[in-house]
Amino acid sequence: MSVERAAEILASAAQGVALTGAGISAESGIPTFRGEGGLWTQYDPVKVATIERFREDPRAYWTVARERGPAVLSAEPNPGHLALAGLEQSGHLVAVVTQNTDGLHQDAGSDRVIELHGSGRTVQCLDCGTRESRRDVQGRLEFQMPPRCRICGGMFLKPTVVLFGEPMPVDAVEEALALARRADVMLVVGTSLVVYPAADIPVVASRAGAAIIIVNAEPTPMDGLAAVVIHGRAGEVLPELAYRALMSGGG
Ligand code: OAD
Asked: What's the CA gap between 136 and 122, in Å, rounded?
């Protein structure tokens, strides 16, 4: 019933925007951060994912990255990512704003993807600025920890993701907020909505008049804001939602 209602709302969207988090990539085999099996239940983010700690001890960061990297690098888009790409092609969505750094929305065919937390597919040397692909750096972790810059030998090679304590990419945040203010529908998928400023985006959209649809495995602190809340797996719910929205027309 709620999927039907959500599809009706989405079918009427002219400026629909999706906001996604780690939950949409869970069915691609990438563990989420919070909840059962989440990365932050195994590691303390303050010890491994702040920029201060990275500068003190890049090896601690890369120890986690060495473990998590293969799952991320070999992951493929799942039906949830593909459904969002389809909704953009059909005109029901104008963009995907994501907290994810895995690149799977782009792989699925989404054209306009705003990465609020950067991209994990590139690594940059903090000393000389040289960039390398994450895949190449990942390949040498077995014999070089922490990895060194291949140009200057520096030992502060950091994926181009936002660590705690680092500024967010200003252009991405501004674009996401502008999209939220213009949105008539916001489809929020697979995020616990506890990390700011990303968690503010549905609030901004709602205040500007957008109808909020939340698809998440568990309740979120913002369920009260939503016109429809669907508790389920993104890879199962989104294809059905997209199909029904397409059948209802609009876009
Ligand atoms: P979280 O791990 O906090 O939340 C993921 C949400 O997805 C949870 O509420 C799960 O219930 C839900 N979920 C899990 N599997 C799902 C599925 N198959 N379908 C639908 N929902 C599912 O991830 P984010 O909200 O993305 O930041 O976390 C936000 C930020 O916190 C991340 O970008 C990262 C992290 O620290 C940085 O690294 C800067």
From this structure: 9
